[in-house]
Amino acid sequence: MRFVWAVAAFVLAAVMIGAGIAQRTVFQGPTTETATISVEEDAPYLLIDGAVFNTAPGAQTLRAYGEGEIFASYGRTADMEAWLADADYNAATVADDGAITTTLISPEAPDESEAGETTEDPADETAEEAPAEEGDPEATVGRDPAGSDLWLDEFEQTDILIAPLQLPEGMSVLVATDGTAPAPDRVSVSWPIASPTPWAGPLIALGAILMAVGVFLYILAIRHVRRARGPRRKGLPLPVTEPIDLAVEQESKGVISSTPSRRSIADGKGRRAFAVIPVVAVSALLFTGCTADAWPQLATTPTPTPTATVIVPEGQQQPAVTKAQAERILTRVSTRAAEADEARDIDMADDRLSGATLEVRNTNYVLRGELDDYESPDPVLSKPLEIILPQAYDEWPRSFLAVVDDEETKTSSIMVLTQDDPWSEYRLSYTARLEASTLMPDLAAYYIGASLVAPDSPFLIMPPDEVAAAYADVINNGDESEYASLFDAEGDQLRVNIAADRERRLADFEKTGKDTGDLTFSTEAGPNEPWAIATLESGAIVAVDIHEIDTATPTEEGAAIKLPENKTVEALTGVSESLTGFTTTYKDQVFFYVPGQGSNEKIRLLGYSSDILNAKVIK
């Protein structure tokens, strides 16, 4: 009977294990759902709307097939449509019936009435036109999408592109090659299909247990048969036993060993262990293929965790960049600026620098070309990025504020970067250095952003477009300035440094030119537009530029202003002395915190940088 039960256990175990494995293999069905995007007309770009990626739940996988390099990127739909506004492209969307359709979209033709009113010379047109390829006057080179600052992320692979994505609504994907050749026409999107098999794991587990029970019953059955082989014949009477002389026995018959023989071991526990080990091994192998969806999932009630409440102002637009996007942009700006600094190439610097930052770079390149020992400009820092405050704006120009730590000097750099239009790259327009003790105002989270403050805003204690001139007046007149009470003098190291530097230069000038010349100082607002972004206390961070102007003039007829020690001014002017004198201009890039109306705070200096801008002979 034990054999019957053992066989029954084996059969039932095999059925249960087989059923569990079948659920995970032949009966499981497809694991992914795929939607093919058909492209009928050639175009250099394919824009796949976010609705296509959300026609099925779960993570998305984009696949594109072609020859050569294949490019894909994703970003906000509005940004991508703006980037493609002047190009032909195929747009893949979801129709009302749920089908994926593709439409060729061409740029809108300019209004003839507006075109007739323009007086611009076609030769001066700044629109980007594609040059013709050599040997083919009709062929044009399109705009390569790789490396645009608009993309949140991008992928580039050869012949076949596989990109795992998790796109929400409002995002789209751009697929192309080099912007000239047609975009790949074999594109698909796939999603994983959830096909849990909650009974596969229990069936395999119970089958393994029954198999172990069957093996145990089988061993018991064999043991029972061996013990119950039936009656044996009675033997002849044995003589009375006597003690055996072991020494004699060893000499005559050999040594008698009490150790069990190998056969007895094989017939006993050793054989049972050998039989059980394969069962355990098979069970372990079966369990390794059982994932979490092969077991019943008990419903659990998640415990809510408190999160900080973030209130987004009504009607506020999307932030210009994400944190990852800002980090990538800063890295590109830093790399390009370093290349331009090394080559002293202002055209190369213009790719990523603008405004006040580009102006002082140009002067530095000229001086380094004339003076061998002149120092290179401070590098543009890119990481670690400590603060990012993007402008909340959907149109252009758009910008963001960044603060990057300098681990070597234990200071930080504060920067403003601006993108003029969808096809331009972000360029660094203002940069300054923060002191270690600088207290930054409370700022909005980077994923919310903040609005720019109008230059003439009446909601601050001083409009941003008046800050530079007011601060210049404070430097010129000190406590006698009408604006002195509005600026916080405590911690204003720029005013301290300007005063000390002027005192030093005046002392040097008077050593040789006290009786024949005059050295005066003045400060005025720079020509660049102020930049201001709102803070959480209804104030604003304002960036401006200020010019410090030194004027050296002769006071006696026939006297000349000489530059025996000022190699910098000599290099910029090309002369070592002048009968009319010299003017030297230094540019200060300055960041302030300007409180809102009704605040008891004063305008506070956050950071600054000072560089020589130019030197000229007075005419």
UniProtKB/TrEMBL annotation:
It holds the Pfam family DUF8094. Residues 318-616 form the DUF8094 domain. InterPro entries: DUF8094 (IPR058407). The keyword Secreted does not apply. The chain crosses the membrane at residues 199-222, 273-295. The keyword Transmembrane helix applies. Keywords: Membrane, Transmembrane, Transmembrane helix. This is DUF8094 domain-containing protein. It comes from Microbacterium terrae. The lineage of its organism: Bacteria, Bacillati, Actinomycetota, Actinomycetes, Micrococcales.
